């Protein structure tokens, strides 16, 4: 039984679309997990259904041009950020069964990786470097959608950026403030065909 409502956009999915059955009998599943606990196996396999991990999310949402792909966060230089935010785990921002799109407590999480951002011939006013210096981390998502999904013209002046309230509405499951047209739509769901 689900713990709570589905995330925005997942309302049509069935439980088994994400919670795939584990191979083998219950006895085999139990045995495999005992072997894990004894250090004889690298990972657990769950009982009945698999844990929903990044692979399950990426079955529908993987895009080769994603601005922040999971593989990027696995680079050694982001080890501290992985400890602080777990950006390599889809569920660190998109926690299913809470009825929202993004479950971060702030919109300033860009600060974990972009403390040294500066651009030559910076096209925005104020510059990215000035915003970093001012700790203006609540401004990032007013101009940039995190994954780069939407066909959207990034403002060049902060006064033209989205109001922070529209970003919060989006986090809470509201419509995209970046527009309706995406570069790539998600797949219709695991196990489904169009």
Strand content: under 5%
Mean pLDDT: 90
Rg over alpha carbons: 20 Å
Helix content: 25-40%
SSE pattern: HHHHHHHH
What ranges have pLDDT less than 50 throughout 5 or more consecutive residues?
none
- What's the number of helices? 8
Biggest sheet character: none
Number of strands: 0
> Any idea what the shape is?
globular
- The separation of the N and C termini measures 27 Å
Broad structural category: mainly alpha
Structure description:
The radius of gyration is 20 Å and the shape is globular. It is built from 8 helices and no strands. With 194 residues, the protein is mostly helical. Helices cover 27% and strands 0% of the residues.
Give me some keywords for this one.
194 residues, mainly alpha, 8 helices, 27% helix, globular
Structure described in brief:
With 194 residues, the chain is mainly α. The protein is built from 8 helices and no strands.
